Amino acid sequence: MKKLVRLSTIINLLATYLLSQSLTQSNLPIVVINTDNTIPNEPKITAHMGIIYNGKNQINYISDKFNEYDGLIGIETRGSSSQMFPKKSYSIETRDTDGNNLNVSLLGMPEENDWILYGPYSDKSLIRNALAYKLYEEMGWYSPRFRFCELILNNEYKGLYLLIEKIKRDKNRVDISKLATTDIEGIDITGGYIIKIDKTEGSKTAGWYSQHNIYYQYHYPDPDDILEVQKNYIISFIDSFEYKMNNINYSDQPEEKYKKVNIESFVDVTIISELSKNIDAYRLSFFMYKDRDDKDGRLTAGPIWDYNLAFGNVNYYDAEKYTGWKIIEGIPDDDSFKIPFWWNKMWNDPFFQQKFKQRWGELRNDIIPENHILLLIDSLTNYISDAARRNFEKWDILNTWIWPNNFVGGSWENEILYLKSWIIQRIKWIDTALNYADLIYDHNKPERYNILKLFPNPTNGEINIQIKLSIIPENIDINVYNILGQKVFSLNNVTVNDYVSTLTIPLSKFESNIFILEVKAGKLSLKNKFIILK
Fold first, then answer.
1. Cis amide leading into 40 (omega within 30)
2. Where are any strands of DSSP class E within 79-200?
3. Which end of the chain is more exposed for a tag (fewer CB within 10 A), N or C?
C-alpha cells in the first residue's frame, strides 16, 4: 500500500511539474490538489492534497516532494456572492484513509481538520483579510490564523491563496467549553455556543428568527448535532439579550446594562469594523459565542471574518468613503440583510461611546498608528510580491472593474497605494470625529502626549516629522539610523516653538531600506520606523 501511495505521489508531482510551468518555485508554500471530479458547492468530495514547504526563508520547488502534508481531504467550493468569480475559494477537511476527520498541523498552525482556502479576487490588494486578521489579533483577540500559499488544482495554476483556520470551537481557536449530548441541564447546558448572523446560502445554515426578526444560525454545536433542549437554551438567552437591549436604560450602571455582555468585545469589533468600514460589518459573517456560566458566560462578539469587502474596496452604501460611521449610515430598506437593532442601541449609549473613544486612544498609541499599519502592509506585500505577479498573470484583472470595486488601479502597486491612502485618510477622519488629540492627553500622565509621527511612509526621498510634546523644549536633535543601528543622518539644536511641530527633512541620497528616526528633547527620546522605497 505504501508503494502505491508513493507511486501516486510521484505521478502527481510529475504531472504537476509538466503541466504547471507558470509556477516552478515560490517563497510561499505550494498547495497541490487533485480531484477526480468537478468540485461542487456541497457536499465535499474526496481529493488528494500535497503541500510543499521547506521552511521559513527557504525556496519551495514544484519538483520537491510533498513534505508538509501528503494525504486525503474533503473539498467543496465556498462563499456566497464570491461564487460567481472564476477564481473559487474552497472549504477543506483533512481526512484519513478511511474518510474520517484527521487533525493535523498545517504550516505551523495548531492541529485541526477544518480549513479554508480563500482566493482573493475582487480584492486586488490580495491582503485585506490578512490585514484585518493581523490587526484584530494584535488587539488581543483570537483571530483566524492564516498562511499565504500558491495553489495548483488539477494540474492548473490557480494563483495566490490564503490557507485559513475555519472558525470552530477548539482550545486553539474559539476556546470555549465543549458541549456534549449529555449537557442538558443546570450549569452544563449554559455553554459553549457559537452563533452567527450571515447569508443563508450554503450548507448547515439552520437557525431561528428571534422576536425582533433577526436570523441567528447555529454554528457550534453543529446544526446536525445540537439538541432541542440546547437550542431552547441559546434561543432563550438571545431573547433575554434582545429584550434587555430593546429596553435599555442608558442611565443604569454598566454592570446592570451589560450584565451578560462582554462589552469590550463589542467595542473592539466596532473599532475594526469602523476602521475598515466593512460593508458587511455587524450584519453578515458576524460571529458571537457564549461559554459556560461558571467560566465567562457573557455574550462575546467575534471572531471577525470576511474583510475582503472592506478598506475602501466597495462602491455602494457609502462604504467607499473614508468619512462617516458605517454603523450610522446603515443599510437601505430594500436590502434583506439589516444591521441588528441592538448595535445602534449600544452605539447610542454614552457609556459605550466613552469606551469606544478610550479604546481608540489606546490603540492609536499601539496597534493602529499610521506607521505601524503601513509597515504591516509592506511586510505582507513584500512577502507575497512574486506570487502576486504570477497571480495577476493568471487572472488578468488589474485593468478591469470587478464587482464591487471602487478603485481600478491598473497595477498591483497602485492597488496597494490606494489601500494605504484610504486607511490613512480613514484614521484621520476618525481622529477628528473623536477629538483624538484631546482624547489622548491625560494631565495626570503627560508623557502619553509625547508622540512622533512620520509621513509619508514609505517615502521616496523626503519625510515629514510631526512631534507632539507635553512641554516645549529649548531645542531638539534629530537622528536617523539604519537597520544596523548606525547613525546616517543628524540635525542638532533644532528650534521648536509649539507643543505640536512639523518639520521636513530631505533623505533623497539614501537607497531603499528600513530606517529608524529618533527625536531627542533633553532626556526624552522618541523613535519611529520608516521606509525609503524608490
1. no
2. 89-95, 114-118, 146-153, 156-165, 193-197
3. N
Beta-bridge partners for 114:
93
Amino acid at 520: K
Q: Cα separation of 422 and 247, whole Å?
A: 38
Percent of the chain with pLDDT over 90: 74
Q: For residues 415 and 127, what is the distance between their CA atoms, to the nearest angstrom?
A: 10
Q: How many residues does the chain have?
A: 534
| pLDDT tens, position by position, 42-96 | 899 999 999 999 999 999 999 999 999 999 999 999 987 788 999 999 999 999 9
CA dist., res. 453 & res. 490, Å (int): 17
**Mean pLDDT within 254-277:** 96
- The per-residue pLDDT for range 365-401, each reduced to its tens digit, is 888 988 899 999 999 999 999 999 999 999 999 999 9
Residues 210-239: what's their mean pLDDT? 97
Tell me the C-alpha distance between 208 and 200, whole Å: 11
In which band, very low, low, confident or very high, does the pLDDT at 178 lie, cut at 50, 70 and 90? Answer: very high
Residues 322-342: what's their mean pLDDT? 93
Phi/psi class of residue 154: alpha, beta or left (left: φ > 0; alpha: ψ in -120 to 50)?
left
Beta pairing, strands 286-290 & 215-220: unpaired
- What's the DSSP call for residue 243? H
Q: Are 4 and 124 in contact (CB under 8 A)?
A: no
Between CA 116 and CA 500 the distance in angstroms is 47
State phi, psi for 104 to the nearest 5 degrees: -140, 155
What phi, psi does 334 have (nearest 5°)? -85, 0
Identity of residue 162? L
Q: Which helix (H) or strand (E) holds 361?
A: helix 350-364
Q: What is the pTM of this model?
A: 0.80
